[in-house]
Amino acid sequence: MESLSSRISSVLLLVLLGMLAGPAHAGAVFSARTLQLPGATLEQVHGEIAPAPGGGLQVRIDADRLDLPAMGWRRVPLHLDGVLQRDPEHRWLLAGALKLKSAPGGVLSDATVDLQVDVAANTLLLDLRQGVAQATVAVPLDQPTHAQIQLKKLPFGWLQGMLGTVWSGRATGGRIDALMALDQRDPGLQASGQFSISALGVDSTSGKLAAQGLGGSGRFSLDTTQGPARINLESTLRGGELLLGPIYAKLPTHAVQLSMDAEADSGALAIDRLRVGDPDALVLNGAMAFDAKGELRSLNLSRLELGLPAAYERYGKAWLATMGLHDMTARGDVEATLDLRQDGLHAFDFDTDGLDLADGDGRFAVQGLKGGLDWSRNDSRQSTDLGWQSLSIYKLVNGPARSKWQSEDGVLALQQPLSMGLLGGQVRLSQLSWSPAAAKGQRLDASLAVTGVDMTAFSRAMGWPAFPGTLGGAITGLSVSGDRIALDGGLSVNVFGGFVDVTGLSLQQPFGDNPVLAGDIALRQLDLGAITSVFDFGSITGPLDGHVSGLRLVNWQPVAFDAQLLAAQGGRISQRAVNNLTSVGGGGVAAGLQGAVLRLFKTFGYKRIGLNCRLQGSLCHMSGLEPTTDGYTIVEGSGLPHLEVIGHESDVDWPTLVRRLKAAVASGGPQVR
Q1: What tens digit of pLDDT does each residue of 573-590 get?
Q2: CATH of segment(s) 167-320
Q3: Which positions ≥6 away from 448 have C-beta within 8 Å?
């Protein structure tokens, strides 16, 4: 790296030599509008020389503007105030104070300077100190473009100007110690040496390349003579945090090896060779590139070895959280490669001898995963096997299975049907083709069938009341567009003596924080007696038909639907069910009957029951069989005593309606008084 102290030494040397060559007598004053030095420019320079009280000469130099392009300094005011003496060995010595204003990183705002010029030894020695920070520079007088530099506890922010010449980032903290050699070339510079850092912090304008609290040591070289800055780094890091695009690392306190060759040009960064070694977690060989905005342009991992759970905790946790995968548990080892370019994914493969994964939110889990996948955009790959002991998706546990895959012409395809046991039934995946590089909406083609799934076990797994029956159906097609999965075909549940048909299913952000499920449901000839017995709602007999159109669930909570429920073939309804329907519709005592009379009968005949709810946001627009003068009919009675239940509330807050339904099921509904 280019050292600020080497540049300052050149400036001070040339200014002082000019003074010494001129009339250095008491009371001398000099000025210059512009002073052009190799690699530096001073403007509006003013100087004074006067006898010092203790001997020697008092020297004051002010420059309104100091420009050091290699350091990224522009318009930096300079003030030097010191005593110049000549010792018995004929060396020129200058000791005093140096103050810079508005320099990047606040560098040398209040420093002491000791300068020694030894013509006989052909050496200039400069020592700068401010607080605990120290920079020492040795420069041959006959080769002022070369410097040997030692930095001790130097604030890393002091190098902000230089950092800005090769990268758009900024220093945010930390200190550096270094021992290096620097050579000024035309153009550019070359530097190399060794360093150690503590609590180092840097950040980019995009926030996608950053470090915080880094500690470590190593060797480096920097070369800007060919245009873009070429950087070589061989280092050992201990502790801290590092962000490289999508990769966030929380480094351990033990040694992690990091080495790279990189090129920085106008804010863009291309890492041609990247090697990371964390003994119990990660081995990585590869390359990556970022544009000037910090966006990842390419990522090539020729070798990636992960040891879990350490690799997840240190390197994968934050990245997976951005994909909605939080607090995962992971055990096992994985080997992988990846080729991601500016025009998209070109290849990947992975292999494991045993891996257990589980999402912290319970959305998926896999145990005993063995084998791998191998895909290429352009080349054919050998077939691979991938199997598991159990696979769970949203609490639904699938049994053990083994699958065979092959990549051909950019398509990774299942080679033979895959069957898995599910809750007493079976899921059979007859066909699946995945094209990772295809256009959105054309990447996945699949078909599957579900047969004989026990609805009682399914209900328990989902935390629902136990429904008797079976689940089956066929998904004839599946498409993925962005983060949305759409399914062709449908599922049919044989339950409560009838059928519930689900069609038009789609799922957005399936593993995100707020998954969105959409679909349509049709109800056919469900036995109301069986339904009301399961939900403890009060007895109603007769068949039920209806539909729930435009159903939309966000994070599994309904936000929109249009539901219509109709029992049009008559039956019997209990007093308790009457009370509950009255409560749901916001009515009072059942119309036409006094509470005392209502208590005389346990059940009533009805001709029709109808209840509708159109949910929009948090408001349910309710209706029934037909409107009345003050509401809508929910139950149309039949026979004696003739019963009618009227709903009076047309717009009901959805949370309020849910509370009413829960109260009805839990307590048997409101009592008639």
Answers
A1: 888 888 777 777 665 444
A2: 2.40.350
A3: 427, 428, 429, 430, 474, 475, 478
